[in-house]
Amino acid sequence: MVECVEIVKPPRDEPWGMREFDVRTVDGHRLMLGSSLTPDA
User: Number of structural domains, the chain?
Assistant: First the structure.
């Protein structure tokens, strides 16, 4: 299996109301992805 990304920060719920995680691609790009924890945001 080929590794495509490095997990920089595993998924976690943040105090500001977001669930976020952070990855780095094999070519060095860093991506932070997140989703609101509240349904109205």
Answer: 1
Q: What range does the domain containing 25 cover?
A: 5-36
Q: Is residue 23 part of a domain?
A: yes
Whole-structure pTM value: 0.68
Q: How far apart are CA 8 and CA 21, in angstroms?
A: 8
Assigned domain for 31 exists: yes
Q: Which letter, b or e, does each residue of 4-39 get, where b requires 16 or more Cβ atoms within 10 Å of its Cβ? A: eeeeeeeeeeeeeebeeebbeeeeeeeeeeeeeeee
Q: What is the pLDDT of residues 1-41, one digit of tens each?
A: 567 889 999 999 999 999 999 999 999 999 999 999 998 75
